[in-house]
Amino acid sequence: MRKMAALPEEPAEVVVKPDPEGGVPPQPPPAPPPAAPPTTAPAEGEPAGAPGGAGEAAPPKPAPPGPATSPAPTDRQTLLAVLQFLRRNNLHESEDILRREARLLGEEVAAAALSPSAPGAQGTPGGETDATGGEALLSRVAAASGAAGGAVAAGASATLGGPAVVAVPPGKVGGGVPVEDQPDVSAVLSAYKQQGDPALYEEYYSGLKHFIECALDCHRAELSQLFYPLFVHMYLELVYNQHENEAKSFFERFHGDQECYYHDDLRVLSSLTKKEHMKGNETMLDFRTSKFVLRISRDSYQLLKRHLQEKQNNQIWNIVQEHLYIDIFDGMPRSKQQIDAMVGSLAGEAKREANKAKVFFGLLKEPEIEVPLDDEDEEGENEEGKPKKKKPKRESMGSKSKKQDPNAPPQTRIPLPELKDSDKLDKIMNMKEATKRVRLGPECLPSICFYTFLNAYQGLTAVDVTDDSSMIVGGFADSTVRVWSVTPKRLRSVKSAADLGLIDKESDDVLERIMDEKTASELKILYGHCGSVYGTSFSPDRNYLLSCSEDGTVRLWSLQTFTCLVGYKGHNYPVWDTQFSPYGYYFVSGGHDRVARLWATDHYQPLRIFAGHLADVTCTRFHPNSNYIATGSADRTVRLWDVLNGNCVRIFTGHKGPIHSLAFSPNGRFLATGATDGRVLLWDIGHGLMVGELKGHTDTVYALRFSRDGEILASGSMDNTVRLWDAVKVFEDLETDDFTTATGHINLPENSQDLLLGTYMTKSTPVIHLHFTRRNLLLASGAYSPQ
């Protein structure tokens, strides 16, 4: 943990710009709590330095527009800037030392600016011996080069911007629990102290706007990304410094210029009109504690930097340096369309570095199971007169995945439960069903069977279907969980202990005898939650059922006795979704506290806590090989987490609204995501790239499912339709060369209509769940809502 805390502290502030590739700099995600402050606060020599420290990070930056060619005037300017700054912050002791030192050295060249800062920062004099280091320290312009420059910059950030580093974690640490954020709020907000003339804010912003609108077309689209984060920070700065009228005027003048997908965020922002409002506001804290990421080509960035330096526009330059992370890439600037496809999340785009880790997306090798031919099948084959052709085909089904997938994780990478005899029987059944599976495609679309919940006045909030399609479960707003049998076989409970003692355990039909016929019914109602049930999931072996609720718990129910076995308590707020691993035993949950948790059925505490989202975790999904978990969030990002070590290995941005559905392709290579923006986005997990965008739905996409062989993707929406898309066509001829991967220049077709295979309307039933049976019949479900 200490190591993690150290990482963000070094690069967090200064290295933002220098990095040419844009990948190495800050790494805020882990949660470094109190590790940073102790080292930074005493460096100033005053305990009170902490709150002011975050503010300190900004004022030194007025120097950037200054760096001139002749060193002496620059250093003199710099020295004066530092002295003024120390006086403003009442750091008289440091100011005296600086004056004395400066006089001692006759205010000469770089030494005048650099050595004085050394006494204030006990540990850093060694590195700060050249003028460029001083400029990097004071202006944070991207001048530092090589490791030495990085060290100087890092040391400098520790002395000057200390608490600004502290400002990064709170949103991350607290995982969204505002109570935990409270102690750090003052440190977070204090970065807004000591700023420029409030009357000039509108002038600064409109000046930049005019510059960007007059820039060449190729740069304009990229630089326009600056509008939104600068607008928010400048507004918050005015509010924090209690210039309420200027803030109101600034908001009214420029909020209409922002992209339409930020309008919900701006509505929240418009309610923050007083300094007091900012204290407990989560949106504000999110914005302040996570750097807004912009991906810009080097040419566009140089153009911006030159403009700000010529105009002496310190206010905007400070914000760019302090609150934005500019991920610079070499190459052609991206077009408006390419940028629009990727932006829209709460914290900008994902850094390219975030998607470079290796992901084992292949499938695990299936255990070898002999598939006996039962009599029925043999008779059928003899009638057809082709027994020999069918038999090898059946065996090949069993051996299809015997070859190890090169992209698969090692078999023992995470411990998975051993197969029981009943699991083996189920696998054999599955393989038999697979031989009768319909091959789907554009010419052969699946039949769709819709389960409509009528009179669901309890409010249907979640649905799941067992893998063998024998049971369906509904979670309801009245806190009940209801399980139906969708086959003629009725649901029965196990007999009481006294009756079980009388059974002959050696008999062949012992599994039948232990069931109590008197309890047989089509529907079982499970009581236990004390709030709406938002997520349900059957275990792969159909012995257990999970449900998660507004009451903050996840419950595990037995489908043998229809009683609750365990209540897992870890989330403090409503739990929005839960899902079993494809191998059983593990399950994941995600909720309003912004974290996802990995559990095992036999542990009452979570095994992993996945923290990093900036808003509620709304949906969760296991990768088919169970080594990874995908989470979708209201922060409009999708993250992929490694179960083994809890690391976030992919961040996907591009949705313009909260994400409500996720589906992995059966081969594990691709992920489909659906959100309130009505778009379905497709991602290549290996390369960390968006590879497709399916437009057609007019409302939230609540359900996504690939067919059993992955040829078709079905999507279900609140617009009362099920749509079928040609997944084969989307994923063939993918451009995943190194250049695309490195720069994110994705080219999506304008129109996804040629991928749409069919649209199926319901009368008035939003679709909230989809499921392909083992033979590729599509089951859809939802509750009828009379208009």
Can you walk through the features of this model?
It is a single chain. The chain has 787 residues and is of the alpha+beta class. The protein has 29 helices and 31 strands. The strands form nine sheets. The chain has a four-stranded antiparallel β-sheet with strand order 4-5-6-9, with no helix packed on it. A four-stranded antiparallel β-sheet has the order 10-11-12-13, with no helix packed on it. Strand 5 (471-476) and strand 6 (481-485) form a beta hairpin. Helix 4 packs parallel to helix 8, helix 8 (131-139) packs across helix 9 and helix 24 crosses helix 25. The longest helix is centred in the first third of the chain and has 18 residues, at 71-88. It starts with a helix and ends with a strand. The relative contact order is 0.08. Residues 1-71, 104-183 and 375-401 have low confidence and may be disordered.
How would you characterize the largest beta sheet?
4 strands, antiparallel
User: Unreliable stretches, pLDDT < 50, 5 or more residues?
Assistant: 1-71, 104-183, 375-401
> In what range is the share of β-strand residues?
15-25%
Average pLDDT score: 74
Number of helices: 29
Helix percent reads: 25-40%
Largest sheet: spatial strand order: 4-5-6-9
What does the overall shape look like?
Answer: elongated
DSSP E strands, number: 31
**Which radius of gyration do the C-alpha atoms yield?**
30 Å
Global structural class: alpha+beta
End-to-end C-alpha gap: 54 Å
GO cellular component, one term: transcription factor TFIID complex
GO molecular function: RNA polymerase II general transcription initiation factor activity
Domain TFIID subunit TAF5 NTD2: 196-324
Pfam family, one: WD40
